[in-house]
Amino acid sequence: MGSDEFYNEGTVKLSPFWKGFVFVLIAALLAGGVVFISRVLAGDAFNREEAQHALYGMWLARDIKALDIGSFWYDTQRQMVWPFLHSWVLSFFFLVFGTSYLTARLLSWALFLAAVILIYLISTELCDEKGWRVGIVASLLALTSPIMIRFAAENMIEGLGALLFMATAGLYMISEERKITVEYVLLAFLIGLSIYTNYLYAYLLIPAFIVMTLVRLGPLTFEAVQLRRRGEKEAVHFVWWSYRKFIVLGVLLFLCGSWFSFSFSRKIFLLYNTIFKYSGGTVVEGWLPNLIYYPKVIISDLAFSPWIGVLMLAALFLPRVASRYHGLNRLYIYVWTVLLLLTLTISAKTPQMIYIIVPFILIIFSGVVVYLFDSLKRTNKAWAYGLAAVILIPALISLPRFGGLYLPEQGEGSMIKALDYFQATVPGKAGIVSMLNLKRLNPEVVKFHFRDWPGEIIAETQFSGEEIPAGETYFLSLEIDANSPYQADILDDSLYRWNAWLKDREMDGRIRLYSVKRFDGPGLTAKIFRSNP
Q1: Given 354, 414, 443, 511, which residue has the most CB atoms within 10 angstroms?
Q2: 121 plus 195 within the same structural domain
Q3: pLDDT tens, 27-54?
């Protein structure tokens, strides 16, 4: 990508492509540095999904460190709801940087920076000589996108999915006109990796490339018929195109077959349920709410200003404008294929489902804006600058939101400090019991935070009311003030049921209060109870 020469016509002056690349790189490092300090370093405890991904990576890192191939294979193949690719990469980060909240989120942060750079590179390849300008605009939008900044600081698989989609689209774009087989093997490999990342991504990504292939098939078939009339040898281009697509199909079938070659029935069941029944989010009832759900997400979550979000949505309906750039129509195919599949076939809705196409939407919008600006500038500069004013001036209203993306409010304490207090206060080798199911204090978070704890850990989502375990046992509890921001972390009544059970056991003398610590900033009171002999 970026075929411009490094130096422009033998001078020491950098070409526009490299000037844009250096600018984007510096901007990404500066903005990424702020995100790293304000969100990654200052991050709170994991939510449940983050903790689940972290546990998978932690198990694999331990297996590798112990050189236990059997356990590594077992911990790999038991990841069926979310396949193993993300945990493999995360285990490498844990091995290199140590296992921690910071390291897990460091992977997402690195994927975010890579995505910004790849957005620039893809833009320059898609949009001809103006691509560097489109790339700069799209990269800056990525650096100010609430949804992208969110997943830059959370241990989630969305960043890997988006990067995989972009890498696949980029490789497809630069290799389509070449007759090199190995590039198409790599292309098929990248597409096949989607099934090892997330079933939903495979469901969205593979059809997107099938549609792209079918769109290309029509013109090529017509071209082949015309060429055949002039001589069969002139139809070689179509033959090569078909041959390469069969290579992609063969490798893709092999990768899918490898994944489903064991535990076939269970994986098919999970694939169906993950996509169509339990894909997360909220089930949206009614055809109109379903139809407008993702347009609303584009308006509210893709840009720091809802006004820019409105314009992004409008850009998706202007393919004729964007067709001035030779490759931008490809992105329209990817975006609309994914949006239609999500809208028409999946009842559960959540903003993170469209994350894998967010970079494409940013590039499309940037391409439309740059094209319109250049067109107006050729006829009337005042109109061109008026277009810029129409985009930027209303966006100024949302500047406070922009500041909040990079400098979110930080309380004087956090859930992770409460967990640190529990870990530092409970004597080593003692048993620990926690029956809480909060957003940031749940069984998965407890297991990750106490990952090296030598004693027994009992953490379940539903309290069974069983008798107190034998031996020295400590019970972890939390009280949340009515005005605490952590009230939003309460997912069910487990907090109240657990505290009520502890109070009853304290009254009948079977446990006693061992330690209490107050966190005034977040409005939390952490309590530790100890079983009586």
Answers
A1: 354
A2: yes
A3: 999 999 999 999 999 889 999 999 999 9
Cα–Cα distance, 56 to 70 (Å, whole number)? 15
Check whether residue 393 and residue 426 sit in a common domain: no
Q: How far is 274 from 310, CA to CA, in rounded Å?
A: 31
Instruction: For 460-503, write each residue's pLDDT tens digit.
Output: 755 566 667 777 889 999 999 988 889 989 988 889 999 999 99
Burial 425-445 (b: 16+ CB within 10 A, else e): ebeeebbbbbbbbbbbbbbbb
* 83 found inside a domain: no
Number of neighbours of residue 393 by Cβ within 10 angstroms: 10
Between the two ends of the chain, the Cα-to-Cα distance in Å is: 70
CA distance 150 to 158: 10
Residue with tokens 């919008």: 365
**Comparing C-alpha atoms, which of 97, 94, 82, 83 is closest to residue 57?**
94
Number of Cβ atoms within 10 Å of the Cβ of 111 = 23
- Concatenated DSSP letters of 321-387: HHTTSTTHHHHHHHHHHHHHHHHHH--EE-GGGGGGGHHHHHHHHHHHHHHHHHHHHHH-HHHHHHH
| Same domain for 465 and 336 | no
Residue 257 counted as domain residue: yes
Computed on alpha carbons and rounded to an integer, the radius of gyration of the chain in Å comes to: 26
Q: How far apart are CA 346 and CA 382, in angstroms?
A: 46
CA pair distance 192, 32, nearest whole angstrom: 30
- Domains held by the chain: number: 2
